[in-house]
Amino acid sequence: MTAYVTPARRSGKGALKWARLTADTEAELDVMAARLELQPGFRFYATATQPAYFLLSPAQRTAALSLGAQPAITETTHRPTAGPDDQIDLFEAHREGTR
């Protein structure tokens, strides 16, 4: 199972930081979400430009990483926190899979 989490980013001026949790498949996303005790009703469904995901608080992001989720970047986050070989652009991977 491969799940991915983006770095936490502010959603607006003064807003809380949120990270996104996604996975290679929606079934894998559901498994990780259950391990994190996330409510299924808070899931954002896939579109043509982005995979299905959950929003995570910084504490939930840390928990997801400790459960084996991999760090990921988004096309708008080009400052990886780890080495470039450890990063996955999850939105680019999703677009390639839908072409």
What does this structure look like?
The protein has 99 residues and is an alpha+beta fold. It has one domain. Helices cover 28% and strands 17% of the residues. The protein is built from 3 helices and 5 strands. It has helices spanning 26-35, 58-66, 90-98, and strands at 3-5, 9-10, 17-23, 54-56, 70-71. Strands 1, 2, 3, 4 and 5 form a 5-stranded mixed beta sheet that branches. Strand 2 (9-10) and strand 3 form a beta hairpin. Mean pLDDT is 79; it is low at 75-87.
Name the descriptors.
99 residues, alpha+beta, 28% helix
Order of helices and strands: EEEHEHEH
Report the strand count.
5
Q: State the helical fraction.
A: 25-40%
In percent, how much strand structure appears in the residues? 15-25%
From the alpha carbons, calculate the radius of gyration and give it in angstroms.
Answer: 13 Å
